[in-house]
């Protein structure tokens, strides 16, 4: 015999709820978002548009741009890019763009270098954890310190690099003093922490590689490069993606190393867009705020190409796991 | 495991590997070792051109004492702490909230707001430089800790939101649903259900943001000047100008300036690496 479930005698009356309680699910996220969005809008989103506006003025930074600035339309862009009759591209822009290209290309070497070191360190011998930490820790240093350390390393008389070169019978070099080599000297310094970062990404990735797949591939006779290319690298794809994102952004954003190591010199030959913007406004180039903003907009445009690609990739992944 | 463990390749390979490790490490850290060596040499060694020989005597104590007691370095270190710690608290607090909102609720515009934070986090600082400097000056906050902190909090919120939101999405959603069925208010779900689960993420983000902000140089020179407010990254350049060509003191000063994030890293290594590599494994 089955007992009937106890049913309350009276009809169920839902408790009276206020407007907030009824709309709680819809409103709560906005309450939680409000402070973050407010901060981000005031300090990041709105300034981007203000920079677009300022880039249309000639302005020395005194007072407000609306009162003290002179509206010049797209003249700043024309001067930078050298568009129109009888105009030449700003020489500093030419140098900066060329150096930005080198930065971007050579900085990406951090990815294979980092993978190489990660493969070298992915062993289980005594003390390996400490080795991994010590290989990684240049990343924790401020770029200012990295810049100083490498400036001293490169010094023509006092630097260790030349001491080593001369010990092996080579000739002394003045890397940061020579316009042809200075940018590459700075990029090498930047590669040091960046390689460490990529290394740690790959070490984490290697840790999660599926051992069964590796064993199965070994039974099929795969080893060495073929194993790395066909079995390991596909599984490291998420690590490679993040390494690519942080390296591209790092290359285009780098400012500290140039400021510390050469201040743009010798003869402006180590300029890159991010440093040049600072130099023509707050630095020695002097108080050309409108011009600086126009360069910033151009750099922003270049970076937007990459940022859009990153966002697009993330969006694709999001759709795949949508719940 | 890839590559094959060296132990399987025999004792010879194992021994070779164990010898190669320290050699590779020394080569990797050689610019830093050079600075460390400089910092324990007496100034007289440089005057006679003894750059790379052994120090004529160990001058570590006097060099570091000079940094701590005869220079502005302690002041700069204190400034860095007073800028970094409030920024960490502010950015982590804001982003636990934004991360919770974006990670738990489905509403129109959710993904767009998320991508706004992500994209903003990647923009070049330089496009913000002039307007943020003006804004800070207009609020009377130029050359103050607060001016720098407010900006840092706002900018870091981008990265922190990305981090927190992805962390919360990986939590079991059933917990939140179960609490809702029980009729628990939404803010109590945040406080009593989600927040306790986020401790590892909060720890990881705190050490990361600490390092990012401590190491910031660009905004320090854009928004502050002088020893009363500048953090140690900007201070070190004035320090070096003061001790121009005194390599023993400049080296000791740089090591002191670099040390706090290094200590933080070694003390909180697990959290630090977990934070940096979030997303590196699917």
UniProtKB/TrEMBL annotation, chain A:
PROSITE patterns: ABC_TM1. GO terms for biological process: transmembrane transport. Coiled coil: none annotated. It comes from the Bacteria. One of its GO terms (cellular component) is plasma membrane. Its main location: membrane. The chain crosses the membrane at residues 25-49, 101-122, 134-155, 227-250, 290-312. It is found in: Cell membrane. Residues 96-310 form the ABC transmembrane type-1 domain. The keyword Amino-acid biosynthesis does not apply. Keywords: Cell membrane, Membrane, Transmembrane, Transmembrane helix, Transport. It is a multi-pass membrane protein. Gene3D superfamilies: MetI-like. PANTHER family: ABC TRANSPORTER PERMEASE PROTEIN, INNER MEMBRANE ABC TRANSPORTER PERMEASE PROTEIN YCJO. This is Carbohydrate ABC transporter membrane protein 1 (CUT1 family). It comes from Hasllibacter halocynthiae.
UniProtKB/TrEMBL annotation, chain B:
The keyword Cell membrane applies. The chain crosses the membrane at residues 20-40, 76-102, 111-132, 144-168, 189-214, 247-268. Residues 77-268 form the ABC transmembrane type-1 domain. One of its GO terms (biological process) is transmembrane transport. One of its GO terms (cellular component) is plasma membrane. CDD domains: TM_PBP2 (cd06261). It is found in: Cell inner membrane; Cell membrane. Keywords: Cell inner membrane, Cell membrane, Membrane, Transmembrane, Transmembrane helix, Transport. It is a multi-pass membrane protein. The complex is composed of two ATP-binding proteins (UgpC), two transmembrane proteins (UgpA and UgpE) and a solute-binding protein (UgpB). Belongs to the binding-protein-dependent transport system permease family. Part of the ABC transporter complex UgpBAEC involved in sn-glycerol-3-phosphate (G3P) import. Probably responsible for the translocation of the substrate across the membrane. This is sn-glycerol-3-phosphate transport system permease protein UgpE. It comes from Hasllibacter halocynthiae. The gene is ugpE.
């Amino acid at each position: 015999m089955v007992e009937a479930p106890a049913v309350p005698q009276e009809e169920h009356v839902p408790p009276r709820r206020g407007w907030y309680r009824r709309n709680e699910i819809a409103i709560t996220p906005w309450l939680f978002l409000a402070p973050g969005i407010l901060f981000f809008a005031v300090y990041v989103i709105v300034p981007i548009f203000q920079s677009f506006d300022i880039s249309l003025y000639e302005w020395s930074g005194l007072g407000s741009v609306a009162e003290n600035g002179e509206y010049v339309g797209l003249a700043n862009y024309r001067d930078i890019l050298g568009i129109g009759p009888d105009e030449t591209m700003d020489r500093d822009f030419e140098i900066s763009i060329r150096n930005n290209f080198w930065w971007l290309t050579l900085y990406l070497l951090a990815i294979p270098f980092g993978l190489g070191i990660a493969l070298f360190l992915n062993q289980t011998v005594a003390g390996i954890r400490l080795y991994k930490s010590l290989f990684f820790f240049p990343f924790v240093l401020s770029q200012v310190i990295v810049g100083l350390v490498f400036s001293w390393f490169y010094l023509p008389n006092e630097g260790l690099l030349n001491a080593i070169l001369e010990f092996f019978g080579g000739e002394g070099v003045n890397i940061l003093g020579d316009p042809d080599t200075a940018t590459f000297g700075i990029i090498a310094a930047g590669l040091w922490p960046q390689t460490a970062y990529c290394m740690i990404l790959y070490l984490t990735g290697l840790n999660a590689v599926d051992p069964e797949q590796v064993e199965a591939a070994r039974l099929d006779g795969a080893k060495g490069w073929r194993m790395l290319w066909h079995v390991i690298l596909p599984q490291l794809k998420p690590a490679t993606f993040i390494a690519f994102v942080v390296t591209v952004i790092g290359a285009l954003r780098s400012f500290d190393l140039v400021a510390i190591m050469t201040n743009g010199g010798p003869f402006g030959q180590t300029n890159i867009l991010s440093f040049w913007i600072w130099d023509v406004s707050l630095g020695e180039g002097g108080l050309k705020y409108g011009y600086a903003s126009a360069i910033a907009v151009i750099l922003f445009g270049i970076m937007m190409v990459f940022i859009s690609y990153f966002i697009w990739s993330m969006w694709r992944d999001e759709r795949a796991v949508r719940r | 495991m890839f590559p094959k463990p060296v132990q399987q390749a025999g004792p010879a390979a194992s021994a070779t590997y164990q010898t190669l490790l320290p050699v590779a490490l020394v080569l990797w850290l050689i610019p830093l070792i050079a600075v460390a060596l400089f910092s324990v040499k007496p100034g007289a060694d440089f005057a006679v051109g003894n750059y790379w020989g052994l120090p004529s005597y160990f001058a570590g104590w006097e060099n570091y004492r000079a940094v701590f007691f005869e220079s502005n370095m302690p002041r700069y270190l204190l400034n860095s702490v007073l800028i970094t710690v409030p920024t960490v608290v502010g950015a982590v607090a804001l982003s636990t909230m934004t991360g919770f909102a974006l990670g738990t609720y489905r509403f129109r515009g959710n993904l767009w707001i998320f991508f706004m934070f992500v994209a903003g986090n990647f923009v070049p600082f330089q496009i913000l430089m002039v307007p943020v400097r003006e804004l800070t000056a207009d609020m009377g906050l130029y050359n103050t800790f607060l001016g720098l902190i407010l900006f840092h909090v706002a900018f870091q919120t981008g990265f922190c939101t990305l981090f927190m939101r992805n962390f919360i999405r990986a939590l079991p959603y059933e917990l939140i649903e179960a609490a809702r069925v029980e009729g628990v208010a939404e803010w109590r779900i945040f406080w009593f259900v989600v927040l306790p689960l986020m401790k590892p993420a909060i720890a990881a983000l705190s050490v990361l943001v600490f390092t990012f902000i401590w190491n910031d140089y660009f905004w320090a020179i854009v928004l502050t000047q002088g020893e009363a407010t500048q953090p140690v990254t900007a201070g070190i350049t004035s320090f070096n100008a003061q001790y121009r060509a005194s390599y023993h003191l400049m080296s000791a000063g740089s090591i002191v300036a670099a040390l706090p994030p290094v200590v933080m890293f070694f003390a909180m290594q697990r959290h630090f690496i977990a934070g940096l590599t979030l997303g590196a494994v699917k």
